[in-house]
Amino acid sequence: MLYTISTVALLLFTVSNAASFTAQIDLSNVTNPEVSKYIFGMNMYQNYGLDDPYTGNYTLGRLGGNSQSRFNFSTNSANSGNDYYYINNPGDFTWQAFYEQANKNGLAFWTQIPAMGWVSGSTTKSWSFSQQKYGQQKSDECTNQPDGTTWCAKDAGNGVWVNGSNVVGNDPNDASIPCTIDGAKAYVKAVRNSYPNTSPIFSIDNEPTLWHGTHRDVHPKGSTYDEITNDTLVYGAAIKSVCSDCLVAGYSAWGWCGYFEDGFDHDAGFCTGGGPDYKAKGNIPLNAYYLQTVAAYEKANNMKILDIMDVHYYPAASGVSMSCDETSQTSITNRLNAPRSLYDYSYTDPSWINSVIALIPRYKGLINQLRPNTSFSISEYSFGGDTCITSAIAHSEALAVMATYGVFAATRWSKPAPGSMVTNGFNILTNYDGKGSNIYDSMPFAVNVKDSDVSKVSTYSFIAKDKSKMFVVSYNKDQNDQNSVNVQLTNNNDNLKINGDLKVYGVDKNGLSYVGTVTPNSASFTLSLPAWSIRLAVADL
Q1: Average pLDDT in the chain
Q2: pTM
Q3: 197 band by pLDDT with thresholds 50, 70 and 90
Q4: What b-and-e string marks burial along 424-447, b requiring 16 or more CB atoms within 10 Å of the CB?
Q5: Distance (Å, rounded) from C-alpha 429 to C-alpha 66?
Q6: How far apart are CA 344 and CA 340, in angstroms?
Q7: Residue 407: other Cβ atoms inside 10 A
Q8: Region for residue 64 given its phi and psi (left: phi exceeds 0; alpha: psi -120 to 50; beta: otherwise)
Q9: DSSP one-letter code for 166
Q10: Phi/psi of residue 483, each to 5°?
Q11: What are the pLDDT digits (tens) for 506-538?
């Protein structure tokens, strides 16, 4: 709906609980010298939407995840691990189809390289825990299927005996084969030869501190500090040896505990310190040890083997990750506040973590201390499900935070269905006019914004490199009330001036649309914010 100024004024006066907020844009305080286009990425995992229309204007496609830890590129077969009965399903998809679709839609490539030591070993459907071989187990692929189902494998057990203990002593060769450095090099070469004009990102496996659970059929013992770091030393060097301009990422920690301790310590019941391996390494967190070890190797060998420090981040608070529950006020509040855990030192995460996370400055500070000039990425994350407005708001604000604080690349898990509500949270930043206009083509820098109450209304600002355009995006997290935000330009040392009216685009429950224009004062303007909405103001300078 296109509101005129008089209509907006009328609405503001007739909504009794409406509130006015302020957002002070500090033009002299640059928080990120150049917003990376690669934060607007997606995990397009196997058959999840590879052939669906790309209704989100995404910039990066990642082929990764648990199954890709066991991906045999020569047979296009992966093993599902603990996610689904440790089954090989050859032909489920092909890496060639993934790249063809991504390339056709203009996406850069992110490929996960197996480094755990085992990949799928079969060109036909097979599994790791045969009930015939290892005895009856608590469930199998047919357990939850109707009687007479023929496509499932009754013999494919879940690796847990009926007494509740894990099957042990299984032969990893039942469904897998050893994976070598030569295989990794061949995979990199195959991708690069197919698309010689690209410089893909290659990440070294996935969530290694969980291998003893996710892939216990081939890796039953918890990974150690040395295993995780040595994988990067070996595979990072191997990738660079065949593709020197490709980017290497590691170690893709699963989440909070994986930032600090390894699988060996997880198995002993430790999370953020105190585990046996943690103590053995001088009480140094895993992420710090990893960066130190890589830096020392590179100095000794006069070569760069790592470009990106990568993590996964699924907010742990109730009702956030992959959820669209809008019946619980706790879920709603947690979801809309979750982006604060990416940057805000005043925000204590309301989950079992019960700590300040401040993920981006936490990692950027560690990088600056131990291995400067390393980029930072978040290759898996979720701030909600696909179908609700609160998820669209949370995802969009998370992207604005990543742009503000200098994340290099990010890929949501996973690509949503075409036209789903959450795509609007991306498109307000990547395709706001439906014609491909976005905030990143102008190579903008981000500046600091001081909000009066970030729990209700938060604002972010990006300015084109040539200072010809300014983008201001505001998020109203108030469920019931239309609010307003007075945006003020401060410390304007370059004497930037808004040239004419600002064009305003918005997202609400009805989708993404052009809203109208706003006339600025000399150094400020006011945006009207409907309940649960996003507003993007685009100004010519």
Answers
A1: 94
A2: 0.95
A3: confident
A4: bbbbbbbbbeeeeebbbebebbbb
A5: 30
A6: 5
A7: 25
A8: beta
A9: B
A10: -115, 180
A11: 999 999 999 999 999 989 999 999 999 999 999
